[in-house]
Amino acid sequence: MARPADPNNTIDKICPTCHNPFTHKKSKPKTYCCKKCACNSPDVKEKNRQGIRKTFEKNYGCHPMQTKKTKERLKKALTKKYGVAHYSQLSTWKTQVKNTKKQRYGNENYQNTEKFKKTCIERFGVDNPMKVHSIRDTSLDTKKKIHFDYIIEFSKGKSLIPQFTFKDYNGYHYENKYRFICEKCQTLIETDIYNLNHIFCEKCNPLLKRTGENSLYEFLTEELKGLVIKRRDRTILNKHELDFYIPHLKLAIEYNGLYWHSEKNGTKKYYHLNKTKCCLFKEVNLVHIFENEWNNKQEIVKSILRQKFGTSHLSVAARECIIKEINDEQKGVFLDQNHIQGNDRSPVHYGLFYKDSLISAMTFCKSRFDFKCEWEMSRYCNKLNHNVVGGASRLMARFVKDHKPKSIISYSDRRYFLGGVYEKLDFQFVGFSPPGYHYISKDYKVLYNRMGYQKSKLPKILPKFDKNKSEWENMKDNGFDRIWDCGNSKWMLRFS
């Protein structure tokens, strides 16, 4: 016969986790009613955390995942098992995540924001931990430390010695400049670290230095001595970058490489025009220079910029000049040497001569695009680095006197000019034309006028042509790319 239970050998308690009553023997004391409640107890959890923390400190000095050795071991194990260094790089990983969310919640993009907010409120008293100053500051400091360590490692690979410590490090904002010393030649370098391509020694890497943009910068610094020239400025367009900005002149300059600014590489129709508009909104005049223009017509581009800077070498009054018609040969040579668009096919052309030297020219033809107008002023330019005061007015007056036009129309390239010369000639602003495009050669060195590549002409030009495809599709099939400009401003002069 079994011995009867001793009622004085048991104790009744309340579980501190689930708050339910339970009984245990005096010889086997228990704090919690079951293992589940013991594991979920905050006190037990905190005790376990402290134990784990002590073990990590003893064995690793920190959390094991903060040591390079552990990280490398994990990468090797994952690479050996899956062929990738992280689970997220698996092609099936994202699919598995979406399938799990769909099975559990019925939506593959499910995010339990309410649960997240509730947990944050319980723990921190706010619905987002980033609203807690201490947490936000810790997060920013951690990111800052990670990026600082990365820059230190990156500079070692470039044979550069950083001349700043973590205390000096203010983040990778484009306005922050940092100093490095080249290990090879001991040259002191000061640069931003926003773009890692900017971190190199120009003396030891001359090929990296001699880019079109850098040679343009050298010209600007020489021409505008004493003025501030900001490179890679983001203060005007916020998110977007301007290659050069000269605050004193309220002038910005963009150097547009044909490859990087082509449509295939993501620069769409209104990209350049939108930048121009945004700058005008801030009362800044933006000039766009295409790479081929700087490479092939550099002196003309420099002359245009000097006009904007007010640093032209010679100023001549138009009243000191002799005006007369010039022949096709004179006109062709002068335009090719002094106009960014080169020669034209105009039948009427006048020139201003100063001491028997042609220093200004204006050409006219029948209106090509607007048939409501009678004439078009096709070209106007001065000799390189010359400022001819009143030259446009004298040339226009001579044409009006000889041909008695009813109306004249002209177009100003918005990449370079605002149309100020037309206002002086009493032209009326009519409107803007949409951006146009030029085709780019396969080696990204030459631009072709789109008028020579109209679809009707392509069968004779292209080795591959499909009549069912558009002009642009056929050009792409044959290896061409294209670049968009800023369009033109349209000006008209009427005579009653």
Task: Throw out a few tags for this protein.
single chain, 496 residues, alpha+beta, Endonuclease, Chain A, seven-stranded mixed beta sheet, four-stranded mixed beta sheet, 16 helices, elongated
Summarize the structure in words:
With 496 residues, the chain is of the alpha+beta class. Among the domains are: 47 residues; 97 residues, no CATH class; 101 residues, 3-Layer(aba) Sandwich (Endonuclease, Chain A); 94 residues, no CATH class. Strand 7 and strand 8 form a beta hairpin. It starts with 9 loop residues before the first strand and ends with a strand. The model has no long low-confidence stretch (mean pLDDT 88).
CATH class of the domain at 209-309: Alpha Beta
In CATH terms, what is the architecture of the domain at 209-309?
3-Layer(aba) Sandwich
Low-pLDDT segments, ≥5 res = none
Distance between the termini: 133 Å
| Main sheet: strands, sense, barrel | 7 strands, mixed
Output mean pLDDT.
Answer: 88
Structural class assignment? alpha+beta
Radius of gyration: 36 Å
Helix content: 25-40%
Strand order in the largest sheet:
11-12-13-14-16-21-17
Summarize the structure.
The chain has helices spanning 35-40, 42-59, 68-82, 93-105, 113-124, 133-157, 206-209, 212-223, 271-281, 291-296, 298-309, 328-338, 391-403, 420-424, 458-461, 471-477, and strands at residues 10-14, 21-25, 160-162, 178-182, 188-191, 230-233, 242-246, 251-256, 285-290, 314-317, 322-325, 348-354, 357-366, 375-382, 386-389, 407-413, 428-432, 437-440, 447-449, 481-484, 488-494.
